[in-house]
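Section 5.1 Outputs to date
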Amino acid sequence: MPAVKLGLLCWNQNTDWPSLHAAGVRADRLGYDSLWAWDHLYPIVGDPDGPFYEGWLTIAAWAAATEHIRVGLMVGANPYRNPALVAKMATTLDHISGGRTYLGIGAAWNESEAGDFGIEFGSGIPERLRWLGEALPILRGMLNGEAPTAAGPHYHAVHVRNDPAPLQPRLPILIGGGGEQVTLKLVAQYADADNLGGGFETVKRKDEILRRHCEAVGRDESEIERTAGVGVVVIRDSHAEAERVYRRLFEVNRVKQLWQDQPVGTPEEVTEMLSPYLGIGYRHLVVGHPAPYDEESAVRLASEVRPALEKVG
């Protein structure tokens, strides 16, 4: 079986830049496989008032400061930028990183922040999904060096070139979201990786739907890397101590109600909670890492839980 991959989603909210930068550099040093930031403009967990660092610049800075880890947005908000520009940005990031870029993209959901920033956000989710469906051929075509032309209702491009090409022969597009009728069909048509969350049973059910979409469009489902957002991980020698640290992280992020069923506990408990994902092919596990970026949990996930998971699956 392929190795278990670990991704770290560092919450780029309610923190300062030196701490956020250091968390990414530490993830590289600890051997994590991927490093992610949110593409938002206000804090999205807890109170929306507070500091927040822009995602593309965050991952560009990480790319320049790291050596091995892959970087990306979990996930880019398609309405926030023209897709041709996004393809150019991702290609530039691929060169900055030495070929370690994911292009994460999704339809976006935060109408409140988009409104405050004056970003056109469409009439609702169906329209934004149509925009994403228009954007993806432009993104894929440019990354493949095809100079695509598009004349859709929302996006336009005329033989748009992308020089230089990405360093990766195929820079992977990761589509985030679990919409069963449209988003997962777009994953089947265009994505090199997906990202699902909401707990194991939800991921399992939606992956079965993704497989059916792949069959319908004639796509080999094994070509799509499966990644799962598994929540906030906190690891300590006792469950009680892990819970105490977990509560403190949510207090710092001004969250009034704790998330339930998170991988919080001893290394053995966390291993038990994460291992079912491996059995359904989700071997790239992306964990939430809120400020103030609990170093002990990051270390122990990589050094204790990952080896245990690899023995399981």
